[in-house]
Prior knowledge:
The protein is mainly alpha-helical. The protein has helices at about 5-25, 25-45, 55-85. The chain has two domains: about 1-50; about 50-90.
Amino acid sequence: xxxNKTLSSYDDENxxxxxxxxxxxxxxxxxxxxCAAVVAFGLWRLKSRGDTKxxxxxxxxxxxxxxxxxxxxxxxxxxxMYKQYLAPKEDGK
Length: 93
């Protein structure tokens, strides 16, 4: 091994990178959590789907998860555009 990095320092670097990215664009983790929630709800509803075909149920679950992610991305873009163009800027700094 040419590198002196330990596994724990590698994990700390990745964790801090994730936290930094989450602070820069907070809607990405929200989208990820929403997607996971939609998938979990879809799997929970799988046992009581009735006469619905499995493929139709999975398509509905996929559309719901994608819709949540697209909504989170759209809100993130609107938020970043607001911060960049419309938010009052401090001239003192």
